[in-house]
Automatic annotation (TrEMBL):
PANTHER family: 5-KETO-D-GLUCONATE 5-REDUCTASE, ALCOHOL DEHYDROGENASE, PUTATIVE (AFU_ORTHOLOGUE AFUA_3G03445)-RELATED. Residues 8-189 form the Ketoreductase domain. The keyword Oxidoreductase applies. It comes from the Bacteria. This is 3-oxoacyl-[acyl-carrier-protein] reductase FabG. Its EC number is 1.1.1.100.
């Protein structure tokens, strides 16, 4: 994949750790300058420093997806560095949002998940469009989840938010196509990262035994699909959902 994204500037949200950090590393290794964004300022700085030590071209920007003012300020700073060729909407609230049935969910938690995962993704995309539209064949990759495809129980707010991301992707593809911007989504399965450490062992076992390609899923298993969707190889692909889950769910 070296050189696949040479000369491009690509923004990744939720890049301080987990899938986002892995995406940022893969994007940088493919030749792009990566703009790493996250609310976790200290972890973001550490992750960026680690990539720079490997020779990566990295910028950082703190951002809070729950705050429209924070998003505006972040993109003012990002715009000062020029246009962007791609956006990976990876940031989402996942830790601590599961375990309750639909009857047990409280309104505050539901609203918080929607505020970050759905509204935040929309606002980030909205802020990014003027920067993306300056480049031909710009790309947006939205990170959904295969939980929205099989209806994972005791996780309703998260599942609903990721279902919204899938629907938003299709609408965004229609609206942004005339500007030459491709918009696609991926739906990873349960991945072994920091954010899933709280997930009960039986849920991990369900996935790992239920995949057509049995076993655990790791961030590296998802990187190739993200690189493809950001690259010129996907210049005529838009509005699509690609499950990346080892065959736990087929689409």
């Amino acid at each position: 994949m070296n050189g696949l994204l040479t000369g491009k500037r690509i923004l990744v949200t939720g890049a301080a750790r987990g899938l986002g950090r892995s995406f940022a590393a893969a994007i940088a290794a493919a030749g792009a300058r990566v703009v790493m964004c996250d609310i976790l300022a200290d972890e973001l700085a550490d992750s960026a420093a680690g990539l720079r030590e490997q020779g990566a071209l990295v910028e950082t920007q703190t951002i809070d997806l729950a705050s429209p003012a924070s998003i505006t300020a972040a993109f003012d700073a990002i715009a000062a560095g020029g246009a962007i060729d791609g956006l990976v909407n990876n940031a989402a609230l996942a830790t601590g949002v599961g375990g309750k049935t639909m009857m047990e969910y409280d309104i505050d938690l539901w609203d918080r998940v929607m505020q970050v995962n759905v509204r935040g993704t929309w606002l980030v995309s909205q802020a990014a469009v003027p920067l993306l539209a300056q480049n031909p064949h710009a790309k947006i990759v939205n990170v959904a989840s295969d939980t929205a495809l099989w209806g994972a129980p005791r996780l309703m707010a998260y599942v609903a938010s990721k279902g919204a991301i899938i629907a938003m992707t299709r609408s965004m593809a229609r609206e942004l196509g005339p500007q030459g911007i491709c918009v696609n989504a991926i739906a990873p399965g349960l991945t072994r990262v920091e954010a899933t450490e709280y997930v009960p062992a039986e849920r991990h076992q369900l996935y790992e035994q239920g995949r057509a390609l049995a076993g655990a899923q790791h961030p590296d298993d998802v990187n190739g699909t993200v690189l493809y969707l950001l690259s010129p190889l996907a210049d005529f692909v838009t509005g699509q959902l690609l499950p990346v889950n080892g065959g736990f769910v087929f689409n």
